[in-house]
Amino acid sequence: MTDTSITLSHIGICVSDLERSLRFYCQGLGFKEVQAYLVGNEYRKLLELDAEIALETRFLARDGFYIELLHFRSPPHTGTGQRRPINLLGFTHMNLRVGDVDAVIATIRAYGGAVHDHTRTRIENAQGQVETDVIYCNDPDGVRIEVYTSPHPAVREP
Fold first, then answer.
1. What confidence tens digit (pLDDT) does each residue in 67-85 have?
2. What is the DSSP letter of 117?
3. What pLDDT was estimated at residue 154?
4. 152 — alpha (psi -120 to 50), left (phi > 0) or beta?
């Protein structure tokens, strides 16, 4: 019998400056570094790169969520790190549910991320009080991060 169980492991983020990204995610957002790897040509086939592979990865954890930061020494990273349109196919964003949106976006700014103030959306309840407060930000390499607070869960368990 085949084991068809699936467990979510992590998401990977290619970064241009490993130390800057470690500061952003660990000191800024409270992730903890849990594992580090040096990867070489043994993963060339998997990575689909024809050059010599020199890759340093760091696994970070917070609240049962894992991120793998990938820093390519060889071949170097590609891309501009510019903010991607939300409707571009592929990974769009990660979400952080927070207690205080203003405090978290101040931290994101302080640790080299970008805050897109024009995206801030506040939804009021029937009494005119802000119930949901949400804004898009980016990490230092352009990965979109949604920061929100709401009494309603974004995802409801079935």
1. 999 999 999 999 988 888 8
2. G
3. 65
4. beta
